[in-house]
Amino acid sequence: MQLTVLGCAGSAPGPDLPTSGYLVEAGGARIVLELGSGVFGPLTRLCDPFDLDAVLLSHLHLDHCADFGSLTVYRREHPEPPYDVRARRLPVFAPAHAPSRLANAHAASRAELATTDLTDTFDFVPLVPGHYAVGPVDVEVAAMRHICEAYGFRISHGGVSLVFTGDTVPCPELVRLAEGADLLLADSAWRAQAGRANYLHMSGREAGEVARSAGVGRLVLTHVLPWSDRDGVLRDAAEAFPGPVTLATPGATYAV
């Protein structure tokens, strides 16, 4: 299994730093995990978007799904698609309200929205806790604790597993999902701070504590806010987790 970081900024992009987006390749399957602002371009450097096998969206804040509009345009408007995109719709595993939410983002007017139905191009699969198959890859889904409906994913193939937290605060559901994972890709928005809002994000220290509790092999910190202290987030996580810890950067690859 290989993980490639397309973007990793939290909440808003930074200079040359797109928001959340990752390409996971395993067993011949290509899965895009999140499609935040600015990640579609880097994706096209790595593979033809027509070759994707699935899209996973943990939740529908724009820093995790804004470039779904770019994928929509590409699949709908490309003059020479390699196959009939309406006969071979791309599976999109996302919260149940994704079809209407993403159609609203795609349409330019109320009149256009009335005729915008993305289900002609995408096969939307509403997420609930449980297991899903993408070719030979198993995707386990667990509900996380964020300010909206949000999920974490455990992607497994060939005896290895990668866990992505999505956006969440520490919770037992996350520790259970991540237990024994080879790599934990963890929301680490900021340094620990007094009085921060509940149900938003983890700090670097909290991500490290979750990684330690779950006994993961490696911790990769992502979704650091552009105005946060990245080096401080890394130090905090490394103090809490005894294993290898790195900061995600665009273009970085991890063999799992």
From TrEMBL:
InterPro entries: Metallo-B-lactamas, RibonucZ/Hydroxyglut_hydro. GO terms for molecular function: 3'-tRNA processing endoribonuclease activity. Residues 18-205 form the Metallo-beta-lactamase domain. Pfam families: Lactamase_B_2 (PF12706). This is Ribonuclease BN (tRNA processing enzyme). SMART domains: Lactamase_B (SM00849). It comes from the Bacteria. Coiled coil: none annotated.
